[in-house]
Amino acid sequence: MFLRNHWYVAAWDHELRDKPFARTILGEPIALFRGADGAVVALEDRCPHRRAPLSMGKVIDGGRLQCLYHGLEFDGTGACVRAPSQKEIPAAMRAKTYPVVERHHWVWIWMGDAALADSAAIPDFHWLSTPDQWGAKGTVMHVKANWQLIVDNLLDLTHLATVHLTTIGNAAIAEKAESRVQRTEQGVLMTRWVMDAPAPPTYVKAGGFTTNVDRWQFIDFAPPAFLRLHVGGVPTGTGAPETFDGGIHMRNLNAITPETETTSHYFWAQAHNFDIHNPKTTEMVFKQITEAFLEDVAIFEGQQRVIDRDKGPPEVDIAADAAQIQARRILTRLWEAERGSTRAAAE
User: Fold this and answer.
1) DSSP labels for 190-202?
2) What are the structural domains, with CATH classification, of the chain?
3) pTM of the predicted structure, to 2 decimals
């Protein structure tokens, strides 16, 4: 159940160097490279001649992608502009292209109807590209699990009380939290406050807290799989939740791109507003979140193994699933609308 008429993150900008880069997105093999002007080009990873992967080729002078097999050269529009063995090139010798945009250190790709690709619809992740205001570092994880399992996880942070006790969680997140779920114009917003509770280990390392804290989690979901978390804490008694200046503020930024029905590319980063010019602080925060996310990945992949083994009885929801349920309803509605539009166009 892939939503195709949406933007997805295809790569970090630094992943594209001096040779083609292969990545499967929504079940489709893609070859990414930088063309003549340095702009990113995305082609179907298949030479139209004899189906050799174009990602096995090389980028030559002029920013053309040369197929390794017979040396055919393709420009940024997907057109074959040179065939070493002949002068005339068949008009059908063309590779499928995909709209791409570089923004906030991510390469975004549109997998659906190219006529609908509007770069204004790309979600805001400016925390990745404002080094004068935020320290930030991120990565991509390959996860052997369906993308919706990751979305579910990020929309319900009560699991921090059991999965992440050594980093970003403690029992208070489930036992003392006050939460609210509301629909937004595009998605779902989950708001959770934990008042007058011990700071979890990562917060102690980052903020140096020696007393209880008032802690918040704002989880902003936008379809198909973008989650921007504003998390942090201030010393108890300093005015929260009415005001929460000071303390520490962090942005956990997530973009999940389906690879197949059972595997995902998990792009994420952590931004912080304290000690932003100190690489050691950024690295410390990044390592703490990495440790926590690896614990999450073990859960996702375990869930996927159970799903693959036996579909089993229906899932049973609990109160903490409220945001997940709202997000799933949005995704189902969008998928049904997209499927209906595709059928209408075919008819």
Assistant:
1) EEEEEEEEPPPHH
2) 7-121 (2.102.10.10), 132-335 (3.90.380.10)
3) 0.92
